[in-house]
Amino acid sequence: RERRWPTAELVTCSFNLSMPIVCCVRRLEPRISTKRISETQCDQYPTATGLSDHIFNGVVAQFGEFPHMAALGYGDVWNGTTPSPFRCAASLISSRFLLTAAHCLRERPTFVRLGVLELQPARVIDEPLDIEIRTAIPHPDYNPVTYRNDIALLELDKPALDWPFVDPACLYTKPIASASASASGNGAEMLPVLSVQGWGTVLPGDTEPAPRLLKANVTVLEREACIASLPRTRRNPAGLHDGQLCALGRNERNETVADTCPGDSGGPLELILAGGRHYLVGITSNGYACGSPIPGIYTEISYYLDWIESIVWPSADVTTTGQPLLPATGTTQAGATGSGT
């Protein structure tokens, strides 16, 4: 049976002598991107060249190794002579926003320091990028007693752009905690090794922060094993809350060889993939004695993606376009400023 086709859509592909050969146009459905906005943003980022609150038994990081790493300053911005107190860390996730722990906002941080290994630099190569914090945004359901929803966003007063060793990290969008059991069912840990970083204390009982940024490797524990290992306290009456995971570095003799300590709070628990791209899996939240056999507790970022994306990239629509989007320019959720306490 003859099929009629709109003449405006007919395309002449070739000729057979004087007779045109017509090709029928295939009707294509528009492509719909299934990526989250955080994943779309990640595609644009360059690749990189335990828990009271610091890194126990860590090693010194190298310049440019963790370009998203930031320290939170609680005094005046550095004037070249007077040291500023730093008590927490954070991770740059766009040109204007950082992720940290909500409990780091008990006292309001005033600025962030980026692009350094040493918090009190003495050499030209260590010159810091200090940017004032415009807005601190704790999660609206953060509980300062139980540390539930211990996550916060910091909006900078100006973009962190065009500075050596400063680049944002990607957000890991998959729930690691739900996949932590071994595929074989024998309880063996099959997750990749993750990295933690910070300027926190180096040994249990220390009060002074590490002079340089430290890093260490830890492994996420299967959720049920983690819950069984945690003492029941007012902070964790049932073990882990939703949106939390735990991790610890141990050797073959089951000895604790790496942990986060005081001063590391708010810093990243991250996965580094081939090519050097950093994916933030968690935020250092809380724990027990630094370097103890009890695992540290981290806020799991994938659990809070909707909240993060609604603030950092509020106008993005990834259901209709797969085109690259510009970094966030500082739009802030109204009325979200607070101390988190």
UniProtKB/TrEMBL annotation:
GO terms for biological process: proteolysis. Keywords: Hydrolase, Protease. It comes from the Eukaryota. SMART domains: Tryp_SPc. One of its GO terms (molecular function) is serine-type endopeptidase activity. Residues 55-313 form the Peptidase S1 domain. CDD domains: Tryp_SPc. Coiled coil: none annotated. InterPro entries: Peptidase_S1_PA, Peptidase_S1_PA_chymotrypsin, Peptidase_S1A, Trypsin_dom, TRYPSIN_HIS. Pfam families: Trypsin. Belongs to the peptidase S1 family. CLIP subfamily. This is Putative serine protease desc4. It comes from Anopheles braziliensis.
